[in-house]
Design goal:
Lipocalin; ten-stranded antiparallel beta sheet; mainly beta
């Protein structure tokens, strides 16, 4: 967001009908809380997402089909309908008490303007500066046909190439014009490289035995060209595109005769270590789970650090230094059940990645089913845990990346 006219009025409209306190609203409106809005027009509607750098618990992504009503949950508890006009988008948000707000959005090469009005008339306008999306994130391969190329270029056997290309993953950190990326291969090996956009750098890939020079350029937002030449004079050109959280590599010029491609799905970077800085709501949650509420105080004041590592072959390892939780490291795959022992009880859990972070559900021996959701940002991670059959009961935690 570049600037907002009548900021209080605009934010009160955005969060109308929610249970945000005045203090929470001030946190959201803080100048230090960078607000980003993504807009992607589709054939019959639009995909949008709003995110906040310091309050990621209010991040939300949604998709509109023109003329069809979309119902949102807290903190945006409304029913909304979007329509396309000749040069703008019109959204009308309706609330249970009959209140309505109208948003008219127009775009340009410089950015976007959203004009907001209510039943009493004009409220204000928000001006958004167009920025190029960053490539930062954690990527999991969804398809690839690189094995024959790896066999030809690097002298691998078919079995070695197949193992290297199993469950590929990719981590990217972008800071201004400096990029650091980590390749995770199927055999558990990794390769880390750092470079500046548009500058020639030495490329040494110890896994594949690559030695040479490389340069990456960015001809357009979300478009990348990677040129490489090895010490023997052989060269290759890879093109990559990042669109709708899919990163696709295509080999335009192969090193020898065999090309290939790979497509990765981007997620927030949920790997690394996060330290707890706030937890609330534990007493009611423990009671709903059939546990002793007296342990809530220790749980809420446990400033533990949790770490998630990618081990390769689709496996992640979660660990914590918490003396209150007392859990051993856990190794799991997304979408597959796993079990662990907590407080002498065997708990079964499943976890999946999302556009915002992670979601999971677990079942305890007493039949209690819990759910959790994390929202991961560049600096913070928030977590909410709920219990089936206990509406309004929730543990809320905030973690900071360390």
């Amino acid at each position: 967001m570049l600037v907002a006219e009548n900021k209080h009025g605009i934010y009160n409209a955005w969060f109308y009908g929610s249970d945000l306190s005045a203090k929470d609203l001030e946190r959201v409106m803080s100048q230090a809380n960078i607000t980003m809005f993504e807009l992607n027009l589709t054939e019959n509607g639009a995909k949008t997402a709003i995110s906040y750098s310091l309050t990621p618990e209010y991040n939300m992504a949604f998709e509109f089909i023109c003329g069809e009503q979309v119902e949102f949950e807290a903190p945006y508890p409304c029913k909304s309908v979007m329509t396309k006009c000749e040069s703008s988008l019109k959204e009308v948000a309706s609330y249970e008490d009959g209140t309505k707000f109208t948003y008219i959005t127009t775009t340009s090469n410089q950015g976007m303007k959203t004009r907001i009005s209510g039943s009493s008339g004009y409220i204000g306008s928000v001006y958004w500066e167009r920025v190029q999306p960053t490539a930062t994130g954690f990527y999991l391969a969804v398809s690839q046909d690189l094995e024959k190329m790896i066999m030809e270029d690097f002298g691998c056997s078919a079995a070695e190439a197949a193992e290297l290309c199993t469950d590929l993953a990719y981590k990217v950190t972008e800071s201004k014009d400096t990029y650091t990326y980590i390749d995770y291969f199927g055999d558990g090996s990794t390769n880390t490289e750092t470079f500046k956009m548009g500058q020639e750098t030495e490329r040494v890939n110890t896994v594949l035995g690559m030695n040479g020079k490389q340069m990456m350029t960015k001809p357009a937002p979300g478009q990348y060209v990677i040129s490489y030449q090895d010490d023997n004079g052989k060269s290759s050109i890879w093109k990559a595109s990042l669109e709708d959280d899919l990163l696709t590599f295509n080999i335009e010029k192969p090193m020898n005769t065999t090309g290939g491609s790979a497509t990765y799905k981007r997620y927030p970077d949920f790997t690394g270590s996060f330290r707890n800085i706030h937890t609330s709501g534990a007493a009611a949650f423990f009671k709903a789970c059939g546990e002793d509420p007296a342990a809530a105080d220790a749980y809420e004041n446990d400033r533990n650090t949790q770490t998630l590592k990618y081990l390769g072959k689709g496996m992640f390892e979660w660990s914590s230094d918490s003396k209150v939780l007392g859990l051993d490291p856990m190794v799991y795959k997304f979408g597959q059940e796993f079990s662990y022992v907590w407080g002498g009880k065997t708990v079964t859990e499943v976890i999946n990645p999302t556009k915002e972070g992670l979601v999971g559900s677990y079942k305890m021996p007493n039949g209690v089913v819990g759910k959790f959701k994390t929202v991961v940002g560049q600096t913070f991670m928030t977590m909410e845990e709920t219990v089936d059959g206990a509406p309004g009961v929730k543990i809320s935690s905030i973690f900071i990346r360390v």
